[in-house]
Amino acid sequence: MKIEKIFTAQAKAKGGRDGHITTANNVLDVELSTPKEMGGPGKAGATNPEQLFAAGYAACFEGALGVAARQAKVKLEGVTVEAFIGFGKAEDGGYGISADLHVNIPGVEQAQAEQLVEAAHGICPYSRATKGNIDVTLNTTTNAA
């Protein structure tokens, strides 16, 4: 899929999963540490690629949900998106990730919330990039905050 770029984010990693990352604008400047569950040191105060992916996916998906809601002329308030990124061995012997998105849209009917989440899944660049590549599960609730 070819796109017309309107923005490019830049980040640099050094030292792999137990290294350091920075962004070109110096907003992110963080240590990385492989989680203990994955055989690493799990250093306190450090993050990992899966947490960074989860944060980006959750934020991007909520933005796409806003687009879907505007298109459907639905006003949303108090929405939350929580992304759970799993890491593990793939069937081919390599490694892979999975994504479970928990989307809460208070104040709308369940069926409408599910329609908005499906529409957002078609809009979100993270969802589009992962489509057919990783398992993505969408969980939709309408609980009051």
Strand-residue proportion: 25-35%
List the secondary-structure elements in sequence, H or E.
Answer: EEEHEEHHE
Quickly give the structural class. alpha+beta
Can you tell me the number of structural domains? 2
Helix content: 25-40%
What distance lies between the first and last C-alpha atoms, to the nearest angstrom? 38 Å
Tell me the overall shape: globular
Architecture of the largest domain, CATH level 2?
Answer: 2-Layer Sandwich
Tell me the CATH topology of the largest domain. Answer: GMP Synthetase, Chain A, domain 3
Sheet having the most strands: 3 strands, antiparallel
Mean pLDDT: 96
CATH class group of the largest domain? Alpha Beta
The tally of helices reads: 3
- Global Rg: 17 Å
Low-confidence stretches: none
What strand line-up does the widest sheet have?
1-2-3
Total beta-strand segments: 6
CATH superfamily of the largest domain: K homology (KH) domain
Protein name: Peroxiredoxin, Ohr subfamily
Family: Belongs to the OsmC/Ohr family.
InterPro entries: KH_dom-like_a/b, OHR, OsmC/Ohr_fam, OsmC/Ohrsf
Organism: Hymenobacter mucosus
